[in-house]
Amino acid sequence: MHAMTKGCLAGTGVCFVSHKGEVFPCGYLPVKAGSVLEQDVADIWRSSAVFQRLRQPDLLTGKCGRCGFKGVCGGCRARAFHEFGDYLAAEPFCTYEPRGLEG
User: What is the DSSP string of the chain?
Assistant: First the structure.
């Protein structure tokens, strides 16, 4: 049996710890969630505001927020951040257009 995962795992299935001890949702998303020099990594994983927001698909905006697949895909949060300056913004390279919803 295989465990099901979603598209973007940043802060939901993986995190990145830099050589300086800084914790990020992934190696491509430069949004600091904490530091292992100041807090246990397990505590950061559970309680970081950044990680908590990434785990709530209903907070996604743009077409990702309207998409019926946001819970299984989520788009790439790093690409959204680099394109729009907001890691909860729409995935800029996604070609899917949610039907029947305006935004």
Answer: ------S--BTTTB-EE-TTSEEESBTTB----EETTTS-HHHHHHH-HHHHHHT-GGG--HHHHH-TTTTT----HHHHHHHHS-TTS--TT-----TT---
Summarised one tens digit per residue, pLDDT across range 26-59 is: 999 999 999 999 999 999 999 999 999 999 999 9
Is the entire prediction scored with pTM above 0.85?
Answer: yes
Nearest residue to 12 (alpha-carbon basis) of 79, 77, 61: 77
